[in-house]
User: Which sequence fits this backbone?
């Protein structure tokens, strides 16, 4: 840390990512764990750009080389299971990925993603989306479009929307003077 | 109004009745940071405008994943954290004490009825103390350090009722691998798992820690065992507290109830590359192994190492394989040392390391090469978890690990 660049605080994709004709899908399967997203031996790194160089290393080596700004990861069940390492969503941010779509997410990864600015999107039909598909999101209307087909997506839990709207948990916290405990 | 133990803990802390599904900003009794997730958490604390932590006495800091520093980057992270501890008046256990979860338990930093968070997924282990404990990311931890509170969605509870008597050489690890295979890798997502029943009541703290430790492997937000005589006995000398009643009401609303009988349970092995793949050891017996690791927050306690030496007897470990044994903490190391077990391990051919995470996280040392097989008492066998993504990790109990370390292949500990 002392010798590393300070990780940039990047803002969360608030609700609607910019349409980008080149947004492609990187398709993954079920139970993609955070060890796969960023292996343990790289966890001394805290800088998103440096972490991104090792994203999915050993699992899908082409990812770090070919991923482009705005690309979307699509997973199956239980995406982001395992370790609580926030290096996982940070590596994705470094790689330019701001949206992860999955059938279901593991709890800690889901929360970490929202906190640091990766939007986790629950899509029950995520399995039907193909690798390499062109994808656009219509968060407000509750669907995404992949290779011309529409799929429903679920809204983010209400209490987390406040964090997203603030621009992530850091921004949210900066505005708080104190936290009244047990507020609901 | 009936309630689960988790609902009772949140209600106690909040001073009003709360139930599963409600979102509350709950006060924290403790927070743990270590050398991997700590630097980011501290950075987030500052990014949030943090100047003073909410209460330095409630924060526990230590280094366990990469100790002694195995790279200049790790050393720099340690320096950064030491500086923060000194500046904030946080007691830093540094590299001296062992694996974070074991140390947190030993130092009495989690107690019945408390809410504790840790920037590590296996924080759920403190449920063995009757606490609600859950793993969080670094940004949430930054928030926790600053405000001493955090948002929680009060989870529903899966009640796992365990009955029956373990066969010899079968224990808590075999049970939790069987439960993980039953519930599945995401079967408890957003839920707490409460372990109860006669078998759990008889289980020692070491075994309860093994159970609660692996709740996260089912996606669980927490694992918990209601405090009883054994819990309060463990708390003695660690915390000044008067024992009190805390348990789920029998007629509380549970997400589901599952029952397990361990009388016929065989030793279990989780096969690559997921934790919910537990099978009876007989199904994989004979599988060649290159490395055996006995240790980690899951199974690095004195009781685990004692079980391994019982299996070992006067035999030697197979010289063709590498056997790495790491007590989970300094206390456990000393107990093991005083009992003469360390000498027996070393004479049998094992490499005994000082307390730390070791090969479990695949970051520091003890990595496996492509094509190699590791048999491990730790908690995760994900692809690449202990090194090469072309290697394989099998998970098992200390007894099965010791038996297999003798033969050089996966072996039923009841047959050694």
Assistant:
């Amino acid at each position: 840390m002392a010798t590393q660049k300070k990780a940039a605080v990047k803002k969360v994709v608030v609700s609607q990512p910019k349409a980008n004709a080149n947004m492609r899908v990187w398709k993954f399967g079920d139970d993609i764990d955070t060890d796969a997203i960023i292996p343990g031996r790289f966890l001394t790194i805290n800088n998103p750009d440096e972490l991104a160089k090792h994203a999915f290393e050993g699992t899908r080596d082409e990812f770090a080389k070919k991923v482009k700004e705005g690309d979307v990861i699509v997973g199956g069940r239980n995406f982001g299971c395992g370790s609580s390492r926030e290096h996982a969503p940070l590596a994705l941010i470094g790689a330019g990925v701001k949206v992860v779509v999955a059938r279901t997410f593991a709890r800690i990864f889901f929360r970490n993603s929202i906190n640091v600015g990766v939007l986790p999107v629950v899509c029950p039909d995520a399995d039907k989306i193909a690798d390499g598909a062109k994808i656009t999101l219509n968060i407000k209307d509750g669907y995404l479009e992949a290779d011309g087909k529409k799929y429903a997506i679920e809204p983010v839990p209400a209490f987390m929307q406040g964090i997203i709207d603030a621009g992530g948990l850091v921004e949210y916290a900066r505005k708080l003077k104190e936290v009244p405990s047990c507020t609901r | 109004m009936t309630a689960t133990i988790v609902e009772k803990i949140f209600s106690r802390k909040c001073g009003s009745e709360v139930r599963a599904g409600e979102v509350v900003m709950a006060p924290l009794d403790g927070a743990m940071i270590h050398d991997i997730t700590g630097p980011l958490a501290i950075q987030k604390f500052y990014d949030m405008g943090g100047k003073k932590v909410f209460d330095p006495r409630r924060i526990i800091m230590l280094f366990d994943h990469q100790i002694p520093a195995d790279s200049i980057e790790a050393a720099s992270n340690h320096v950064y954290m030491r500086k923060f501890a000194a500046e904030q008046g946080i007691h830093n256990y540094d590299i001296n004490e062992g694996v974070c979860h074991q140390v947190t338990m030993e130092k009495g930093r989690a107690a019945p009825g408390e809410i504790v968070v840790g920037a590590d997924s296996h924080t759920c282990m403190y449920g063995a103390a009757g606490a609600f404990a859950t793993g969080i990311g670094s940004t949430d931890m930054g928030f926790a350090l600053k405000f001493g509170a955090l948002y929680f969605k009060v989870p529903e509870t899966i009640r796992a009722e365990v009955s029956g008597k373990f066969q010899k050489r079968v224990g808590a690890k075999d049970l939790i691998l069987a439960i993980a295979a039953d519930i599945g890798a995401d079967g408890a997502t957003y839920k707490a798992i409460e372990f109860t029943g006669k078998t759990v009541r008889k289980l020692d703290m070491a075994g309860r820690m093994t159970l609660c430790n692996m709740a996260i492997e089912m996606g669980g937000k927490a694992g918990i065992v209601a405090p009883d005589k054994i819990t309060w006995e463990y708390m003695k000398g660690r915390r000044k507290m008067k024992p009190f009643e805390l348990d789920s009401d029998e007629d509380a609303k549970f997400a589901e109830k599952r029952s397990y009988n361990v009388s016929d349970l065989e030793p279990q092995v989780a096969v690559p590359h997921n934790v919910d793949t537990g099978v009876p050891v007989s199904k994989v017996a004979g599988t060649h192994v290159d490395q055996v690791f006995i240790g980690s927050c899951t199974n690095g306690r004195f009781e685990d190492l004692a079980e391994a030496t019982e299996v070992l007897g006067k035999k030697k470990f197979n010289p063709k394989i590498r056997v790495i044994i790491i007590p989970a903490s300094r206390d456990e190391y000393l107990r093991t040392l005083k009992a003469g077990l360390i000498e027996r391990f070393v004479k049998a051919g094992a490499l005994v390391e000082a307390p730390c995470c070791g090969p479990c996280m695949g970051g520091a040392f003890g990595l496996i090469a492509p094509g190699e097989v590791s048999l491990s008492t730790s908690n995760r066998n994900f692809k690449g978890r202990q090194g090469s993504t072309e290697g394989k990790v099998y998970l098992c109990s200390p007894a099965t690990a010791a038996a297999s370390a003798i033969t050089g292949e996966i072996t039923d500990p009841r047959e050694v």
In short: Chain B touches chain A through 70 residues (CB under 8 Å). Chain B has a mean pLDDT of 97. The first helix of chain B runs from residue 5 to 14. DSSP finds 15 helices and 17 strands in chain B.
